[in-house]
Amino acid sequence: MLNEEKIRQFADILREELVPAMGCTEPISIAYATAKARDTLGETPLKGELAVSGNILKNAKSVTVPHTGGLRGIKSAFSAGLVAGDGDARLEVLSNVGKDKLAEIAKVRDEFDLTIVTPDDMRIFDIGVTLYGEKHTAYVRIADTHTNVVCIKKDGETVFEKPLEKQGKRTDRSILNVQDIVEFADCVDIELVRDILERQISYNMAIAEEGLRDDYGANVGKVLMRAYQPDIKITAKAYAAAASDARMNGCELPVIINSGSGNQGITASVPVIVYANGLHTAKEKLLRALCVSNLITIHLKSGIGTLSAYCGVVSSGAGAGCGVAYLLGGKKAEISHTLVNALAIDSGIICDGAKASCAAKIATAVESGLLGLNMYYNGNEFYAGDGIVKKGVEETIRSVSRLAYNGMRETDKEIIRIMLDAE
Description:
The chain is an alpha+beta fold. It folds into two domains: 20-161, CATH 3.30.1330; 171-421, 2-methylcitrate dehydratase PrpD (Orthogonal Bundle). The chain is built from 16 helices and eight strands. The protein has helices spanning 4-17, 25-41, 54-60, 74-84, 102-111, 178-187, 194-213, 220-227, 232-248, 262-279, 283-304, 312-327, 332-346, 358-377, 393-407, 409-421, and strands at 20-21, 47-52, 113-117, 126-132, 137-143, 149-154, 157-161, 255-256. The strands form two sheets. A six-stranded mixed beta sheet has the order 3-2-4-5-6-7. Strands 1-8 form a two-stranded antiparallel sheet. Helix 10 runs antiparallel to helix 11 (283-304), helix 13 packs across helix 14 (358-377) and helix 13 packs parallel to helix 15 (393-407). The chain is globular. The relative contact order is 0.12.
């Protein structure tokens, strides 16, 4: 049985990770850094330089930025942050941008003297914004995670600085393991986490319903509902895909993220909620299942890193399968086998940036999670030695982390080169 200290730590991890964000988090991070730089400058900026790592470029170049009137890409995110971003609002930096600002944002996007560079020596997640005014200069750097401001300078003088990889007070993710995650879900006083999980249900289901109601991107969610008999499995995939359809294509509703990603937050939660609704599951059981799906997603992503060539929704799709297993009465054995099966199925999906096709990848990842679950309940599983599958769930998780963090570094570079060649 988990002790009170570990229960508190697991609850703290959920509270640290399940936070609201408006729009795709990489362009939003650019807007946040830009708004901070503008506030630091303290006068009208005349020109600027935006330095981004290849992974930031990959994830920001094609996605619609909310509250911009449908503008896409890096310059749009920069312009929105410069014109109207709230430098204190972190990932909700653009939440309060009014329609009266749209024309100015578009004008700045088209006319502001902005140089965009991608230095080779940047970290995987790295954003640097420099603004030049008539009398002053300002510089803000965000590194490693979406709101981790590591340096602020004015006129070359350091205003704020902290060591890289020091992200403030964060609970150690290495304490996570599948057995303890399941025990936490079983024993936690649900009032300790009710507010954050109910907010996740409210926000992420609202954007899923919006994605099915209106016309967004490739309409993957709608295609699933129209092309197939909408049983509970299809509905779970469709709702998750529709939430991404909306989020990637300009919907101005916030989502609750997981491991720095809205798509991961959607995928870890929406299928579990759909299953709970379809099964008429008690609310408390749903909340405990969301503890499982979210914490397993965080556990998987902790070894992979914030950004990678490995598609993040693979982790959250597997997490969702585990959450559904818990809804159905599964414990450590059922959840572990579901997770291993799911990871064996779709760990080859690449991340080629944030855009409309993310919705289809979400549907595929949810399918793999549910297939992994149904395989085990039908007496079938993948075994150690089947590809990257190792003996035991934790060893398999380490295998996937090794693949994604080390093995796919060159793949990531080639993906970025291919994406830039397509310009």
